[in-house]
């Protein structure tokens, strides 16, 4: 029987995964390979606005071959996590910030804004409906993927008049094999991720598609990830394929490339800046050149480098490779600043530590 819940109707799902099978899947879920029983779906049309909001069984989406997204790529997404708290409950981490960024991404891609209250409620209801899927493991969490795409049936270059907004959920473990171990980075000198005036600040699927060729090049050269340089001078550090980057110096200060329209305004990035400043550390948002990175690593002025994002939290960078050589950061392992910041952030996310900034939203 359908039950109303604010703006959503929650449909009873008669065929959920049996408990024994779910337990087996949660033992080693990997990342983004296992999915929960339910999803949120809301429809949009120009004449009706957002309507027919439901929590329903996760299922394939019927799609006409002429759907606008397949031809003109109007699509955006988000990523956030629900965490199991020590008392057995669950929390979301800064969902309002994801909702706000989703709105900005929609604006850039000429798509209708999803009301932030509806975005958060969809995430909350999917999580509470599928609460049994939240892992109990230390590195486990329930990854939520809100996304929206154009589904008007037409062939013509204009913003669509119809859209679908959905939220699906996936229980996950550590993003990188080895958890918080240091990774190797390949510097892409041929490809760029985004340019000024482009879509770099939007969480748009095309940005990630554009990074795949460079990521394949990184893999071919024995590296875990790729780092992009700016599109104009090919000199300044931009970001990794899907993560922001930080540098830690001998005086304990941190530097991260500034937001300027071509870098995604990461929520983990913002959280780490806040935590570092809370601890009395200087954090500069300034351009940082690839040659300076190499020079500072060689001189010892640079003590640590790490990437950050929702999926991986913090990933230390141990080695950087280029076509003309390679360099190591300190001893090539995770450093104390990255380790400390990661632990502070994870403890807040899992409701193990005080939350002075009100980032955690209790679900149950």
From TrEMBL:
- Residues modified to N6-(pyridoxal phosphate)lysine: 203
User: What keywords tag this UniProt record?
Assistant: Amino-acid biosynthesis, Aminotransferase, Branched-chain amino acid biosynthesis, Pyridoxal phosphate, Transferase
Q: Name one GO molecular function term.
A: L-leucine-2-oxoglutarate transaminase activity
Say if the entry is tagged with keyword ATP-binding. Answer: no
Q: In which pathway does it act?
A: Amino-acid biosynthesis; L-leucine biosynthesis; L-leucine from 3-methyl-2-oxobutanoate: step 4/4; Amino-acid biosynthesis; L-isoleucine biosynthesis; L-isoleucine from 2-oxobutanoate: step 4/4; Amino-acid biosynthesis; L-valine biosynthesis; L-valine from pyruvate: step 4/4
Q: What does this protein do?
A: Acts on leucine, isoleucine and valine.
Q: What is this protein called?
A: Branched-chain-amino-acid aminotransferase
Q: Which species does this protein come from?
A: Enterovirga rhinocerotis
